[in-house]
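Model it.
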Amino acid sequence: MGWPKDPELRKARRRLEYKRNELAYVKRSKAYRKTPAGKIVDRNWRLKKHYGLSGADWDQMFATQKGLCALCRIEPIKHTDHDHKTGKVRGLLCKRCNIGLGMFRDNKVLLLQAIQYLA
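Modeled.
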């Protein structure tokens, strides 16, 4: 039978094929994401989707920070910190520092007040 030459017909046939075998496709996709290669693909897709970073860019940041948090420089990296308004990545943080910044809602005035309070 073969695939039709018309792109719209091909797209419609692929959609129909997916609907007929959706459970098999989902199962195969989940299994692939558990493999070493699938984990890398999934990680790179998430970095690109959420932060606009390639896996190589993230790895470069990780190497530059020597695997340690950009703020405390003690704990290992767990999170990618970004400005919620612009989406620009600021650095890689440990869990505590990431939560701390989040609690201050990226508000510089609030952070300065906290510094004065601690002093």
